[in-house]
Amino acid sequence: MLKGYSIQSAANTKAHSKGKDIIAINPAKQKLWISVKGYPEKSQNAQARHWFSSAIFDLLLYRNESSSAILALGIPDGFTTYLNLAARMDWLFKVLPFKIYWVDKNGHIRVQK
Question: Beta 70-76 vs 31-36: how paired, if at all?
């Protein structure tokens, strides 16, 4: 968990709930909207690319809803396909500022800005 943040809602991603996966408030009272993707099970690389692109599209839609919300992806750390795709997003970080919360299997979070 991120220090100082309060979780307002968390979707049941296994049930494929619609909407933002996590909505949180930071200590400065700003909204944080996170699109979360997990470990793919079938056709891992193809599914990871599909999920990653879906998460990026979520961010585009979220920005249209609010120009002030902090946007982020929450994705598994150490999964090669996600790491490679994120490395190719430098231009997007400049145009659509967002963070990536890399979460390892032990729940440790690494932030990419």
Answer: parallel
Query: Cβ contacts of residue 69 below 8 Å, gap of 6+?
Result: 30, 31, 32, 33, 62, 63
This prediction's pTM: 0.89
Angstrom distance (rounded) from CA 99 to CA 71: 6
Q: What is the pLDDT of residues 7-62, one digit of tens each?
A: 999 988 677 677 899 999 999 999 999 999 988 888 889 999 999 999 999 999 99
Structure token pair of residue 64: 């249209």
Fold of 6-112: Rossmann fold (3.40.50)
